[in-house]
Design goal:
The protein is an all-beta fold. It is built from no helices and seven strands. 0% of the residues lie in helices and 60% in strands.
Length: 72
């Protein structure tokens, strides 16, 4: 869960290949490298987890998410 105003950064995951993010409630901004995505409730995205990435909740409600990191 990402609270309103949360701004969490992860440089990368060692020995991982992909990360999957599913938003079940709220909305989350995802920045992967130089790309920015708005992930709305009911949507998901898969990206290269070795890239620097950031999660930002710019909304006034909690963003409930499921994150799966796949390791090599």
């Amino acid at each position: 869960m990402f609270k309103p105003g949360c701004n969490y950064s992860k440089s990368n995951h060692k020995n991982s290949s992909t990360e999957q993010l599913f938003v079940s409630q709220g909305e989350l901004e995802l920045i992967v490298g130089k790309n920015t995505y708005q992930i709305k409730s009911g949507s998901s995205i898969t990206f290269d987890s070795k890239e620097t990435h950031r999660y930002i909740n710019r909304c006034d409600v909690d963003a409930n998410v499921l994150i799966i990191v796949n390791y090599e």
